[in-house]
Amino acid sequence: MAAAEMSFLHNQLEERKRRLESVVALTPEDANLEALLREVDSALDRLASGTYGLCEACHDTVERDRLLADPLIRYCLDHLTGHERAALQRDLDLASELQRGLLPPADLKVDGWETSYHYAPLGPVSGDYCDLYPYNGQLFFMLGDVSGKGVAASMGMTQLHALFRSLIGMGLPLAEIVGHINCFLCGSGLAGQYATLVCGRANTGGDAELGNIELFNAGHLPVIAVEQGNVRLLESTGFPLGMFREASFTSSCLQLNADGLLFLFTDGLSEAQGDDGEYGIERLTNLVRRLAACCAADVVSACLEDLRCFAGANPGVDDVTLLAIRHAA
Ligand SMILES: [Zn+2]
Question: Going by DSSP bridges, is the β-strand pair 138-146/273-274 parallel, antiparallel, or unpaired?
Fold first, then answer.
């Protein structure tokens, strides 16, 4: 585990110790609090002696994401007791349900725009982020990937969801929203956690403005734009969010003609493995070009079908998220 993460965990444990001690001083008879305090002390002792993060059954390292989410964990996933395993499964099932509940409606259509997405976590929860939010005559769309895997990454995803929804609801310009979220993630994210992200704003208003899109690509894979058979890749113009507090973010503006298509995806698609190597952006770009006349839902399902053919028996190793947005005016 990186030094910065160890120091993050150390601070977390010291903070918990401080808080527990002040509560224990008020309620000295509480056995649960006493036990919790002993656990925190024992974790601090392990940090001091260099055995922190090693499973007490097999002495192998405990999963990094689980430690970042709960610094008191002492056993790797393989060595949980039956009771712990069942409790963890219940927590994960609930987290998975909550995360699904954050997704936008399927096949959302708003004035002049038709959308479709596919969201497939590899495990119960995902660090992929996908949202569509019509607000005040505009359609906001977001697709991103929080670094890391599992529960810690999924917490980053839920944070992004809440931040975007609240800041959009305040009527802020997209550039300000992106800047605020970057600062917030720099200050409060888990150690070493950042998010690559594409977010955009499509006008749904008067005829003259329909088709106007403002787009930010912060360290994410390119967005594929198809218009009248021509394909453009809209590449990243900035750092991932949560990496540098001082980073500035520039948007690109595009006018998408009627029937134009935007296609957004995470690396679970472009880096999927088949018998002949990686799926790749070129194969995807060629496919999306051929699908230019299809509705958004058909674009998404054709991509999934192509991925299935390509991957064959090779298992997926990452979350897969796709989003198609068609100017349907
Ligand atoms: Zn173990």
Answer: unpaired
Give pLDDT tens digits for 240-253: 999 999 999 999 99
Q: pLDDT of 83-139, one tens digit each?
A: 888 988 898 899 999 999 999 999 999 988 999 999 999 888 999 999 999 999 999
Question: How far is it, in rounded angstroms, from Cα 109 to Cα 106?
Answer: 9
For ligand 1, the distance from its centroid to the CA atom of residue 140, given in whole angstroms, is 44
258 Cα–ligand 1 center, Å: 57
User: Residues whose CB is under 5 A from ligand 1 (ion)?
Assistant: 55, 57-58, 76, 78-79
Separation CA 190–CA 205 (nearest Å): 39
Residue 18 and residue 203: Cα distance in Å, rounded?
50
CA 85–ligand 1 middle distance (angstroms): 13
Dist CA 104 CA 48 (whole Å): 46
Helix (H, G, I), strand (E, B) or coil at 238: strand
CB atoms within 10 A of CB 219: 21
Q: DSSP code of 78?
A: G
9 CA from centroid of ligand 1 (Å): 20
Query: 51 C-alpha vs ligand 1 centroid, how far in Å?
Result: 13
Distance separating alpha carbons of residues 9 and 12, to the nearest angstrom: 5
List Cβ neighbours of 329 (8 Å cut-off, separation of 6 or more): 112, 210, 211, 258
Distance from residue 13's CA to the centre of ligand 1 (Å): 22
What is the CA(74)–ligand 1 centre distance, in A?
Answer: 9
Per the rule left: phi > 0, alpha: psi between -120 and 50, beta: everything else, 37 is: alpha
- pTM for the whole structure: 0.79
Q: Report how far residue 133's alpha carbon sits from residue 169's, in angstroms, rounded to the nearest whole number.
A: 10
The whole-angstrom separation of Cα 277 and Cα 10 is: 41
Report how far residue 35's alpha carbon sits from residue 277's, in angstroms, rounded to the nearest whole number. Answer: 51
